[in-house]
Amino acid sequence: DQQVKQNSPSLSVQEGRISILNCDYTNSMFDYFLWYKKYPAEGPTFLISISSIKDKNEDGRFTVFLNKSAKHLSLHIVPSQPGDSAVYFCAASDAGNQFYFGTGTSLTVIP
Amino acid sequence: DAGITQSPRYKITETGRQVTLMCHQTWSHSYMFWYRQDLGHGLRLIYYSAAADITDKGEVPDGYVVSRSKTENFPLTLESATRSQTSVYFCASSGQSNQPQHFGDGTRLSIL
Known about the structure:
Oligomer: heterodimer
Order of helices and strands of chain B: EEEEEEEEEEE
Helix content of chain B: under 10%
Number of helices of chain A: 0
Largest sheet of chain B: 7 strands, mixed
Largest sheet of chain A: 6 strands, mixed
Shape of chain A: globular
């Protein structure tokens, strides 16, 4: 049973616009969330994280929002660039040793 | 170079064969992980290790064996490969359990 869900397999956005990637989770014990970016034939690379004590975390063009009551987080990329085209995974942990990953969203930024 | 490396990058084998995927990291990270990536499932944890000689099962451990005799190495063995184990396998490491993990570039394994 998938504890972390990314319901949009793909997303296309024009260069310069905002990309919004969504992630839902079912386990209320999750308290640490991350986003990874993955290019073809490479491993995932860490992008940004957020702890459950916060509702927002920013790093340059990337912002992650957490809505604990809705068990929902989102990644905003502003402005989107062609180099952002990749698969994005969200992941969650309950302070244990395991992270649970979503199925990924493939983002295409159109020049 | 510092980092995490996986070998081989590609492997084709037959059902029933034993195959070992290698993972080596140079950061002296305590934690190491093995994931498989399949369409529709994302990344699923197979096994992880908190330190040398300590290993634990993840979500999908059946059919796999791991060992960790040295901190820097974490090999994954399929003792008798099955077609359902055709996948892309990723190794990862982290300094502590609840920290972002650093991933290798993966091994694409095909079992015929």
